[in-house]
Structures are given as structure tokens and as C-alpha cells.
Design a protein that fits this description.
The protein is α+β, with helices and mostly antiparallel strands. It has one domain. The protein has four helices and five strands; from the N terminus they run βαααββββα. The strands form two sheets. It has a three-stranded antiparallel beta sheet, covered by helices on one side. A two-stranded antiparallel ribbon has the order 1-2. It is elongated and about 65 Å long. Keywords: Ribonucleoprotein, Ribosomal protein.
């Protein structure tokens, strides 16, 4: 006899993990865009960090990675007064928006 109580699994049963090769391709796809040209120094630096293995697979909840003018920094540059105000800044972080794009 079938179980009268339905069993539901989570909407995204396997945690989404962004693999370096996937992210590298996304970043390379950004480069020819206007956004990619503006952030070129940071996008290219991120690609190198992923390719070298310095940044591995990422998932929701991992600490953000900050870059300023292509250099990795420890502090949030939008809150750090020592960061130049007009510098190109980047925050690499898995957010809910990326999960929605992946179909989770």
C-alpha cells in the first residue's frame, strides 16, 4: 500500500556549487561587454585566481572575495576608507540571484 503521507524533497536538494571552469567561462563571456570592459582589470584578475586554483569551487555561504583594481584585498572596499574612492571594485560572492539563474 502506498504511503498516505506525501514526502517532499527540498526545492534544491543538492547544494549549488559553482565550479571554477564554469565561472571562468562566465567571466570570459563578460569581457566583450561594456560591463566587462569597465571591470576588465578585476575580471582578468579573477580568471587568473580561478585558473591558478587560488579560488576553488564556491557555494552559497562562502566568504566574499574582494578585488580592487585587480588586486585581492581582505576588507570590503566599499566600507574600507583606505580604498581609493574611484577605484574599480569587485565582490565575488554566490548570492541567491546566481542560484535562481542555475535553476535551483
Amino acid at each position: 500500500m502506498a504511503n498516505p503521507q506525501p514526502v517532499f524533497s527540498p526545492a534544491c536538494p543538492i547544494p549549488y556549487v559553482l565550479q571554477p571552469a564554469e565561472r571562468i567561462q562566465q567571466l570570459k563571456d563578460y569581457l566583450p561587454t561594456e560591463f566587462g570592459q569597465i571591470q576588465r582589470v578585476n575580471v582578468e584578475a579573477l580568471i587568473k585566481l580561478y585558473e591558478s586554483g587560488e579560488i576553488g569551487p564556491r557555494q552559497l555561504g562562502d566568504a566574499p572575495i574582494y578585488l580592487v583594481e585587480g588586486k585581492r584585498v581582505d576588507k570590503n572596499p566599499w566600507e574600507d576608507e583606505s580604498a581609493p574612492p574611484n577605484a574599480m571594485k569587485w565582490c565575488e560572492e554566490i548570492r541567491q540571484q546566481m542560484l535562481q539563474q542555475s535553476g535551483c
